[in-house]
Amino acid sequence: MAEVNLRTPVSQEESQALRVGDIVSFSGEFMFCRDKAHARLLDFAHRQRPIPVRMEGMPIYHAGPVVRGQDRSWRIIAAGPTTSFRMEEYEAHILRYYKPRIIVGKGGMGKTTSEALVDTGGAYAVFPGGAALLAARRIKEVIGVYWIDLGIPDALWHVRVEEFGPCIITMDSTGESLHEKISSESLGRLRGLLSG
């Protein structure tokens, strides 16, 4: 287990070196992206249409920010993570096509995403639920917001963060998944209780 401070864009070598249990913080550019934006990213990839920002090496944070508009700009006032499994049907494609390297959210993701993390040398990290104000304090600037027609929480938010964390790696490029391990152990205990 290691404590790692990463500056974005994150290289494949950096994301590939992360292991389950590592505690990570990020500084640099970040993308907020939920299911509607994931669906549009996938649609654009299939149609080979350009997107408004380069995503390679830029972590995706599963979050719908609470924002305040001020003086022709935006200020994020809360940014808690969204349940990541909502993005499971899209994430493997996004990882392979856009190469963000790191996914941040809550609750973990499934087998399809885990396989894509192995293929792309990526990692998944959880940010603590209930810490939306802490997350917002780490966001220093809204660089751009795209696809606002999807709604404020579902738009693609491009931000600059400083020491965004702590995030705990729970899925890594070796295929290890803390979520799968806990689920398997819990199921084993449940079966033991039911058979006893």
- Measured between the Cα atoms of the first and last residue, the distance is 36 Å
Strand order of the largest sheet: 2-3-6-7-9
Largest sheet: 5 strands, mixed, barrel
Structural shape: globular
Helix content: 25-40%
Residue windows where pLDDT falls under 50 for at least 5 positions:
none
Rg over CA atoms = 17 Å
Number of domains: 1
| Helix/strand order, N-terminal first | EHEHEEEHEHEHEEH
Question: Quick gist of this model?
Answer:
The protein is an alpha/beta fold. The chain has six helices and nine strands, in the order βαβαβββαβαβαββα. Helix 2 packs across helix 3 and helix 3 (88-98) packs parallel to helix 4.
Q: How would you characterize this protein structure?
A:
The protein is of the alpha/beta class. The chain has a single domain (3-195), classed as Fe-S hydro-lyase, tartrate dehydratase beta-type, catalytic domain (fumarase, Alpha-Beta Barrel). It is 32% helix and 31% strand. The chain has six helices and nine strands, in the order βαβαβββαβαβαββα. It has helices spanning 12-17, 35-46, 88-98, 111-120, 132-137, 178-195, and strands spanning 3-7, 23-32, 60-61, 66-70, 73-78, 102-105, 123-126, 139-146, 156-171. The strands form two sheets. Strands 2-3-6-7-9 form a five-stranded mixed barrel. It has a two-stranded antiparallel sheet with strand order 4-5. It is globular. The protein starts with a strand and ends with a helix.
